[in-house]
Amino acid sequence: MDVINLYPSIPQKECIEIVHNEMVTHSELVTSNPNLITQLLQLNMTNNFFEFADITFLQRKGTAMGAAFSPTVANIFMSTLLRKFLSSTSDRPLFMRRYIDDIFMVWPRNKDLDKFLSELNNFHPQIKFTTTQSDTAVNFLDITIYKNSNFTATGKLSTSTYEKENNLFQYLHFESNHSISIYKGIIIGEAMRYVRTNSTEEKYKEQLSKFIQRLKERKYPESFIYKTLRNVSYKRRTLYLRKVTKAKPQIMNRPKMKCIPPPRYLQLKKIIINEFHRYNLSRYCNQPLFITLKNTTLKDLLVNSKHKPTEEDGRTIVAKTKEIKNHQSHNLNVIRKAEVKQPSKCNHNRCATCQHFNPNINFNSTSTRQTYRIRHSFTCSSSNIIYLITCEKCRKQYVGQTTKTLRERIYHHRSSIKTGQRRYISKHFNLEGHKIQHLKVQVIDTNENTETLNKLERYWIQKLDTMQPRGLNVTTD
């Protein structure tokens, strides 16, 4: 039995209440404040944004399938739902086990199964089930549970490995550039899975034979396969079936060597370890821990499931955290992008800012050479803004913010330059060969909230790389 589309079907408000109640009921298992966890869960479940066709959506129902908390939340929700249902019905299965949304059960012949399933599907308006019934065999997770030839005599069910029809068995190719331990791990891990999932040695050997053939197709040497498989034995099945909690290795106090594996990495590693013991360096520290980092692959360069983030994506993450009202009324909320007019001077006769105003709709970082697009309409009279000053003489830049108008802010900068005040902008434009006419300004961002404006200022200082010595900013505080 399987729940149809469990993750997107979970009602958010009901699920949050269930999780909170379960934490209160089993308080001895909860290590943190249940109210805090509930608030964090609500924040995550009700603010799941995603993008499709250049439109941003908000998920109104269910939980995100890729979120780390989703399986746990779904598990708690289903546990409570089934417990309530089973307590409300007189007909119950002889045996029932569940893994999140997959359910295996044994039903007594003298009971009405169709009635049970109908009641189950009508118990909750959003959670529906689909079933596969058989008198001889059913698939559950990665095993097939079936009646063996001696079932009548023993009353015991048997298991074998279940492989989905669309499984392409794309094991890591042996000619890939990876450590030999990775290939050994693949073989040992899969062989141990076959031991656990097959209740008879005959079925195990049958699966192992197919596995060996698939490895050969991925260019694994036959000698390497059989040598590695010596580490796995069906006779140790009882041991493999035990749930073993591995003690975490004490690695925090070991010196770490992190690198993208260079050519002959294993030889270099062996040399370092040999020299470590040769000079008895264990007197001073533990043996180094070697950590290999992932190198850039063709996939990294060529494949991207999402368009490359723009400056608007970055500043939206920083600035856009508004509460959405009545968010239970619809399934999706759509945020569309507005048309933007080009920045323009105010052209007032007495406006000194106009001579410094750059009306270009694009701006660029002279440090990183990246170009960005202005997403708002600005003039000399704009307030609550982030502005970018560029020195046309040496191309150094400064990011600032003000709640006043751009005209007032530039007036103060001009005044400090003319009077030679000991401020960073003033000192720069009073350097030899520099003039006040070299000062050009663009308004690049805006926000009515002062706290958010400060965050955006720090964001653009980092994004445009305007900290000294590459720029004119001294601090992001």
Overall mean pLDDT: 87
Helix content: 25-40%
Distance linking N and C termini: 57 Å
Instruction: Indicate the proportion of strand residues.
Output: 15-25%
Number of strands: 17
- Characterize the quaternary organization of these chains: single chain
Structural class: alpha+beta
Q: Biggest β-sheet: count, sense, barrel? A: 3 strands, antiparallel
Q: Radius of gyration from the CA trace?
A: 32 Å
Number of domains: 4
Q: How would you describe the shape? A: extended
Number of helices: 16
Strand order of the largest sheet: 2-3-12
Taking pLDDT < 50 over at least 5 consecutive residues as the criterion, the unreliable ranges are: 321-339
Structural summary, described in words:
The chain has 477 residues and is an alpha+beta fold. It has 4 domains: 2-133, no CATH class; 180-241; 256-292; 353-464, GIY-YIG endonuclease. Helix content is 36%, strand content 17%. It has helices spanning 6-9, 12-25, 34-45, 70-88, 113-121, 151-154, 180-197, 201-217, 222-229, 237-241, 265-278, 298-302, 311-319, 406-418, 424-429, 450-464; strands at residues 2-3, 49-52, 55-59, 95-99, 102-106, 129-130, 137-140, 143-147, 157-161, 256-259, 289-292, 332-335, 362-364, 371-373, 383-391, 397-405, 439-446. The chain has a 3-stranded antiparallel β-sheet with strand order 2-3-12, with no helix packed on it. A 3-stranded antiparallel β-sheet has the order 7-8-9. It comes from Amphimedon queenslandica (Sponge). This is GIY-YIG domain-containing protein. Residues 382-473 form the GIY-YIG domain.
